[in-house]
Each structure stands twice: as structure tokens, then as C-alpha cells.
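Posting for a labmate who doesn't have an account.
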Amino acid sequence: LNVFHIFFHSGERTAGKIVNRMNRKRINQGILYLTEGSVVFSQQGKEDKVVLANDIVIIPKGQRYCMEYIGKNTKFYLINFEMQTPDGKDCNLTEDIEIILHGMTSRYLVDLFEKIRTSYHSEKNASYFKQKEYVYRLIAELFHHETLSFLPKISKYAVIARGVQMLQELYLENIPTSEFAKICNISVSSFRQLFTEYYGVS
């Protein structure tokens, strides 16, 4: 997957502040981390999602929603970015707005958000590459925490679970699909087909 057009934002909002995207789809993907306070995501026809301090939320591209800050002082980090498959198709980390981590206390994750912030505000040329590296690491770590929910549970697709876990752990290395298929004891074409059917990306 290719991550690009990274934009970092942090700040503090008071209760009652509303971000309304009901009439306009979100133009990029976002990872929101609340360090203090709380917000509510509302979407038409869906149950409200309450996000509390130390929760991390994935906000997919193309979503329509209303976000209201309800905590007295809500502090946050927000990383916006584009993401595409190797063949240039847009893709999302999740299909819907999802609280991927509740009550996060990982020092490593906090450090990654800080490193992304620092590299984003740096004027050094190499900082762009560092920024991308840290975003990839953040995504991998988030889904590492969510391994059990991210791995296939439907019996038809369970055969690729070991390969998907290996992909998560070694995502920065250039490993051929044949290695993921081999650990699952299936052919490359079968691995690709099942992976694409389950995750919606190739």
C-alpha cells in the first residue's frame, strides 16, 4: 500500500464545537487520537460513536458524518493521508468510522504520533520519508493491537490468517506474495483470491 499526501494537525477544542461533513464526503483518510476530552460521531442511519480520551479512531475517505466535541477541553492529534493499492486504486483501512483502540496507553504509539508531528513540521528534505515511515509504523502497530479482529474469522478465509499476520509484522520488507502463500500451505493465486475477497484490496 502507498501512503502519501500526509497532513498532520493537532489542537484543542471546547465543548459544543461541531465539524459537519454530512453534505460533503471526507476527501482523505484520517487517524484521530484524543489525548483529552471526548467527541461524538453521528452518521445518518447509524448508531452514534462516542470517542473518549486515549481512544484512536479510523475515519475512512468518503464518509459523511457530524463530529461534536463534548468534553470541556478536547485535545487531539489528527493525521490525514491518501492511501492506494500498488495498482493505484484508492483504499481505506476500515469501511466505516471505527474506534480501533480504546483507552490506549502504549508509550510506543504516543511516541509515533509525536514523531509524525515533529517530522511534519521539520523543513529538512529527509523528514518527508521519515513521516511516511512513521505513518506506516503507526498503521502496523494499530492493527497489531487489533490482530484478532483484523484476521479472518470466517472459516473459508481462515486459511490465510497466518499469511496476513506475517504481512502485518513484515510490512516494510519487500516480501513476495509466494512467501505468504507458502506459510498458509496454499497456492499464490488462491492466497491472492481469498485476500482480495476478504479485504477488498489486492
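Reply:
Got it, the C-alpha cells are right above this. The chain has a mean pLDDT of 87.
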